[in-house]
UniProtKB/TrEMBL annotation:
Residues that span the membrane, as ranges: 12-36, 48-69, 139-160, 167-186, 206-224
Family recorded in the similarity comment: Belongs to the TerC family.
Protein's UniProt name: TerC family protein
Signal peptide boundaries: none
The keyword Transmembrane is assigned to this record: yes
Organism, as annotated: Megasphaera intestinihominis
Pfam family, one: TerC
Presence of the UniProt keyword Cell division in the record: no
PANTHER family in alphabetical order: MEMBRANE BOUND PREDICTED REDOX MODULATOR (PTHR30238), SLL1022 PROTEIN (PTHR30238:SF4)
Membrane topology: Multi-pass membrane protein
């Protein structure tokens, strides 16, 4: 019974991490969807957003499958771990910077749907990499987390933005999760373990180190950006 409870708590925690990462990294996706559908009649806008969201979810699953398959290539898990650290640093360091996001508005339903799917796919590579890293290729948790978080981003974008602005600590938690996940990803790279056994033998220490590196890197990024603004 205790084993079942601990597994349930672990799964719920993992799903919460997936949702938080998707929310932290997916702020611009909802803007893209709005831009693509804004020229459509109102009765078609809802259909475009609905169909586009469904297609975006399917595309994310395909991308996650490809990423999981690529991680079988020697040392690519380590490369993915490094990328996760960089994504976490950017998330923390650029949390108060506005990105220039522009997508051409479409005049037909299916053109808008295609634009939504392709734009979301291009903007979600970091999300997918982070989720695969956090779940460690656990497809049940990965699918459930995506099914929850993507509709939240699309249909609750205004609420998500308000929550993120109200509680900026969530951005730091998201970056910390990415750093922790990168350590787990690197520790499970069997090819790296053949040459650096220290990584595989000390997974918790490695996770803590990369978590600290991610947060510290984010603060340094933010500091440099603010100094440039002062100089300008």
């Amino acid at each position: 019974m205790e084993g079942l409870e601990s597994t349930l708590v672990f799964d719920i925690t993992m799903i919460l991490q997936v949702v938080l990462i998707d929310l932290a990294l997916g702020g611009d996706n909802s803007i893209v969807i709005g831009m693509a559908a804004k020229n459509l009649p109102k009765h078609l806008q809802k259909r475009a957003i609905l169909y586009g969201t469904a297609g975006a979810i399917c595309m994310r699953f395909i991308m996650a499958f490809i990423v999981s398959w690529l991680f079988q290539i020697p040392f690519l898990k380590t490369v993915g771990a490094i990328l996760l650290v960089l994504i976490g640093i950017k998330l923390i360091g650029a949390d108060d910077q506005e990105e220039d996001v522009h997508v051409e508005a479409k005049d037909s339903l299916w053109a808008a749907v295609r634009t939504i799917i392709m734009a979301d796919a291009l903007m979600s590579l970091d999300n997918v990499l982070g989720i695969v890293g956090v779940t460690n290729n656990h497809w049940g948790l990965l699918m459930f987390g995506m099914l929850i978080s993507v509709p939240i981003i699309v249909f609750g974008s205004t609420i998500v933005v308000k929550v993120m602005n109200r509680f900026p600590i969530l951005i730091y938690i998201g970056g910390a999760i990415l750093g922790w996940a990168s350590g787990g990803m690197m520790a499970t790279d069997h090819y790296l373990a053949q040459y650096v056994s220290l990584a595989a033998n000390n997974p918790t220490e490695l996770k803590i180190i990369l978590l600290v590196v991610t947060i510290a890197g984010g603060f340094i990024w933010k500091r440099i950006h603010k100094n440039k603004e002062v100089v300008a």
